[in-house]
Each structure stands twice: as structure tokens, then as C-alpha cells.
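Notes from hallway chat w/ T.B., transcribed later so I don't forget. T.B. wanted the structure written out for a chain they're using in a teaching module, and asked if we could keep both sequence and C-alpha cells in one place. Agreed to drop them here.
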Amino acid sequence: MLSVGITGGIGSGKSTVCRVFELLEVPVFYADAEARKLQEEDASVRAAIISLFGNDIYNASGLNRKLVAEKVFTDKFLLDQLNKIIHPATIIAFNKWKENYNDKSYVLKEAAILFESSGNIGLDKIIVVSAPEDIRIERIMKRDTLLREQIISRMKNQMSDEEKTARADFVIVNDEKQAIIPQVMKIHESLLKIAAN
């Protein structure tokens, strides 16, 4: 079984692409969702986050994500420290999760900051979903009701599309001109062939 990473900048359309793979019965591990779960449910992760940010970072409804975002997107050191807590725990969770799918040719690990978090280590292939920056900003503004400046600040904390595509085995262009499904099908067929050899 192959372990395949899928990544792309914020607003590139990774989730849409992953849903197409899921229709092909490919299991998808959503690293960001798993990280959120670990921040709420894993005692050691919670303790490390409290140690980093202080007791008020959790409230009655859980982790105060808005406060975390305000702190980490303006302080690179805090962002790096938070990543050092979350990413190793997420990698462990992925390795445990994929044991449930040994009958599959390949599984996908979706992560926004796959390279930045070293989440690509141990993966067999990498797919990058790429989209022009203006389209990405427009998508995020509609989806998350963030200001353009907030989005650009978050983009600066991610590797550029050019860097990601240079490190990718496959690239899906999600520019609203090229159809996604044929691109996914071509990659799917390639991965099935690789897994079979």
C-alpha cells in the first residue's frame, strides 16, 4: 500500500480534490481535522498547548482558535512551537489510521502544510493542488469571511506554489479552467499501476 500526500496552499481546493478521490474509494486522512481533534482530546497535546499559551487558551467550549490564530500568525516563533507540538502527534495518528486500510492500493494524507511540517517524510508520492493566488484569496474570503490582509498573512506562513510543485510527483491545476476529474483520474490510474508493481 502506498502512502500519498496531498497538499496545496490555503484556498487551492484540496478538499474538493480529496472528495473526488473518495468517490473512487480512496481513503483520505485529513491531517488538519485530526490535529484539531488532538488539540481537544489528547491530554499531552492539550498540556503542551497550555504550557505554550497559558491557561486561558482553552475555555468552556475548547481551544480558543481565534486567539491562537491571532497569536501565531503574527509571531513566527509561537507558530513554530505550536507546530512542534501538533505535527508529531498527527504523524503518529496517520500511521495508526492507515493500518485500517492494508487492503487498499493507496491512501491519501491531506495536509495544508505537508512540507513545512515534515509530514511528507515517509510518504511514497506527493500530489500538489495548485491555483492562482487571486482565485485562492477570493475562495477564502467567501468561505471564511476573512479580510484580504489576514489571508495574505496566512499565505506567507506557507510554502509557495512554485516550491511545492517543484517537490511534487503529481500536480492538479485547480484554476477554474481545467477540469479536476480528468486530472484526478489520470493520477489515480498512475498510482494503481505503481502500487501493483
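Follow-up for T.B.: The chain has one domain: 2-196. Might be a good example for the class.
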